[in-house]
Design a protein that fits this description.
Layout: H1 10-26, H2 28-48, H3 50-53, H4 61-80, H5 83-90, H6 93-98, H7 104-132, H8 140-170, H9 174-190, H10 203-210, H11 213-226, H12 237-261
Helix pairs in contact: 1-7, 2-4, 2-7, 4-7, 4-8, 4-9, 4-11, 5-8, 7-8, 7-12, 8-11, 8-12, 11-12
């Protein structure tokens, strides 16, 4: 018997996306905890160490660090959104979605869009808080840059949500997800150039940072918010970062979709 291939459904994508947004908004503790750690980094390291470290290039340390901390919030929020796959499976909601006459691709697109949107909301909150701390000069030009930054946030988060979905689709245990995702995220975060410029790092560390996809995400945020980034990628660093982020997104979304399509319920 020929297997029926379900087309991608816009309505199914919208319903799954809306569910992810409602679940995020109703969990106020999750909203607060998701940005609290990043605020801590901004306050302690950005303001506390700023005077000790001094300027980095043409900006002060808080301004240099703020795009990286925003990127940290995007990274953690994106990957951890994949845990919803495990929760839905354990509480039986996944089975209800799977028996619906919609393709699994529609479900996973909705989940990726939902995870990317909630992580971007966290990024916007951090952008506002960093601005209030004095990381960026508030002006009309900054407002325009902020809108471009929001689109960059959505782009950056999509690939990492795909990574979280891939991990969540491969595991059945919440604690295993937490351990594995933390094991993956911290190296990505520490090598992304949040705390120090890549130009000042030893050669071996530079190679490791250039192999980190989150490094290009942070570079893209710095180009959007500060108008410049590290010199190692040259004047077209924003374009190189954009191409790498898009390539990483394609790879991770494809991987997440493939593993989700093989999920057993």
């Amino acid at each position: 018997m020929e297997k029926l291939v379900q087309p991608i459904s816009g309505q199914a994508i919208y319903v799954v996306l809306l569910r992810e947004l409602k679940r995020y908004w109703r969990a106020k503790a999750r909203v607060i905890s998701s940005v609290a750690q990043s605020i801590f980094f901004l306050a302690i390291f950005g303001l506390g160490l700023g005077n000790f470290v001094g300027p980095v290039g043409e900006v002060n340390y808080l301004s240099f660090m703020a795009p990286g901390v925003i990127g940290m919030g995007l990274l953690f929020g994106s990957v951890f959104s994949g845990v919803s796959i495990i929760f839905d499976r354990q509480f039986g909601f996944m089975k209800e979605m799977m028996v619906a006459p919609v393709s699994r691709t529609s479900i996973i697109i909705g989940k990726i869009l939902g995870g990317a949107t909630t992580a971007t909301i966290q990024g916007i909150i951090l952008l506002i808080i960093a601005s209030l701390m004095g990381a960026f000069t508030l002006s009309l030009a900054f407002v325009g840059n902020a809108f471009v930054t929001i689109w960059a946030m959505l782009l950056i988060t999509a690939g990492f949500v795909g990574l979280g979905v891939a991990i969540g689709s491969s595991l059945n245990d919440f604690h295993a997800f937490q351990l594995l995702s933390t094991f993956v995220m911290w190296p990505l975060f520490m090598l992304s150039g949040v705390f120090f410029p890549i130009d000042a790092a030893p050669f071996i560390l530079q190679v490791a940072m250039l192999a980190d996809p989150m490094f290009y995400g942070v570079e893209l945020l710095r180009w959007c918010l500060l108008g410049s980034a590290s010199t190692i990628l040259g004047p077209l660093g924003w374009l190189i970062s954009l191409v790498v982020v898009i390539g990483f997104n394609s790879l991770m979304i494809s991987l997440g979709t493939f593993l989700f399509s093989r999920t057993q319920i």
